[in-house]
Amino acid sequence: MPQTSDFPPVLDTAMVAELLGMNVQVVRRMAREGSIPCYRIPGGRPFRFFRDEVLEWLKGFPVHEAEEEATAEGIAEAADA
């Protein structure tokens, strides 16, 4: 997996999808909905993203210990079934 420093400061949708390990269509949908920080150049159709803003946005979704424990318990229960 590439390091964040391997990505340029301004990203296109495909680069953001690769950076976050997401599907390109999901990133486009999130950009259209305004749920991920993005920009459009006047007269341009494609979205542009600032790498550092995307990483800061991602930090807003931390995994909490309670969620990790619940996920681990769910996996253990599924394995027992």
What do these coordinates show?
It is a single chain. This protein has 4 helices and 3 strands. Helix 1 (13-20) crosses helix 2 (24-33). It has helices at 13-20, 24-33, 51-59, 65-80, and strands at 10-11, 39-40, 47-50. Strands 1-3-2 form a 3-stranded antiparallel sheet. The chain has a single domain, classed as Arc Repressor Mutant, subunit A (Orthogonal Bundle), CATH 1.10.10. It starts with 9 loop residues before the first strand and ends with a helix. The protein has 81 residues and is mostly helical.
Give a quick set of tags describing it:
4 helices, Arc Repressor Mutant, subunit A, single chain, globular, 81 residues, mainly alpha
Task: Please give the largest β-sheet.
Answer: 3 strands, antiparallel
Uncertain residue ranges: none
The CATH topology: Arc Repressor Mutant, subunit A
Q: List SSEs in N-to-C order.
A: EHHEEHH
What's the rounded overall pLDDT mean?
Answer: 85
Radius of gyration, in angstroms, nearest whole number: 16 Å
Distance between the termini: 33 Å
Strand order of the largest sheet: 1-3-2
Based on CA inertia axes, which overall geometry fits? globular
CATH-defined architecture: Orthogonal Bundle
CATH C-level class is Mainly Alpha
* SS class: mainly alpha
> What percent strand?
5-15%
How would you classify the quaternary structure? single chain
How many domains?
Answer: 1
How many distinct beta strands? 3
Helix content: 40-55%
Work out the helix count: 4
